[in-house]
Amino acid sequence: MIVYGPVPSRRLGQSIGINNIPPKICSYSCVYCQLGRTNQMQVKRQAFYSPEDICREAEIKLKQLETENKQADYFSFVPDGEPTLDINLGKTIELLKPYNTKIAVITNASLLWMDEVKQDLMDADWVSLSIDAADEDTWHKIDRPHGMLKHQNILKGIVEFSKSFRGTLVTETMLVEGINDQEACIEKIAEQVALVQPQKAYLLVPTRPPAEPDVKRASSDSLRNAAAIVRGVSGTDVECITGDEEEEGFFFTEDIADDIISIASVHPIREDIVESLLEKRNANRSVISELINQGSLIEYTYEGKKFYKRNIHK
Ligand code: SF4
Questions:
Q1: Superfamily of chain region 3-240
Q2: Which residue's CA is the closest to the ligand 1 atom numbered 4?
Q3: What averages of pLDDT result for each successive group of 10 residues across the chain (314 residues)?
Q4: Which residue has its alpha carbon closest to ligand 1 atom 1?
Q5: What spacing in Å lies between the alpha carbon of 27 and ligand 1's midpoint?
Q6: Ligand 1 site, residue 26, Cβ cutoff 6 A
Q7: Where exactly are the structural domains of the chain?
């Protein structure tokens, strides 16, 4: 499924997801990744799907929404890997532009030292850059980067991009207990955020089952503390996303199984949310059992709560 959704998100409203990277090809293997460990570590950009095929699927999706009198706010590149590894990203964005739907890219920023990657992102309307650490040691611990990457080049690339990008730029920092939630780490991150001056700095905690089972979310106290430091040092607007927010406003298609797979393509869904979706559609749990039996959905437990995620290998 290259184009899926739309799925609701707090930051982007209703967005049509573009999965332009096969699972799970990435330049990082973050300890908190909700897609599991990276299968293929890569920094070399390459072609995966043709931009024309992606646009064709996107157009079908828009037409389908139009017949249902619905509208999407964004096309968002949130793939099963790092979106800038796609050498055709810029071309795909260019082809999607005429559809009058804004374009968002959520990237780990690891390839921003390359001019062509900066160029590819220039025409997006909204870009989120990940800054999990501003010191090399912590960066290795949390993001487990490809061996060819140089942290200083990435940080420099992020700042350079922020100076020329004209769309909405935000940063994203995932806070993991004992890895990057200490004050010393946060202060360095805050200094980096100060250089970037994003419209908003998002602080997140892993709320869904992470790649490494012993990864724990930063406590509410360290999250509050981190928000105060980032705000104080950078002067940037800071927002914390803890994942405890209720997820509402899902668009429904004719097919509840499709809806669930679409949402689970972006992130694992908590059991209570699945249940409320089923209830709203007068459906029962057999939909879930069937998806699990088919191998499309995987059930697992994190912090005592049951979650469902799409089987990206299916
Ligand atoms: S969280 Fe994003 S950047 Fe990190 S390993 Fe997963 S897909 Fe890659």
A1: Aldolase class I (3.20.20.70)
A2: 30
A3: 85 92 95 92 97 96 91 93 98 96 98 98 98 98 98 98 98 97 97 97 87 89 92 93 59 72 78 84 87 90 83 76
A4: 33
A5: 8
A6: yes
A7: 3-240, 256-310
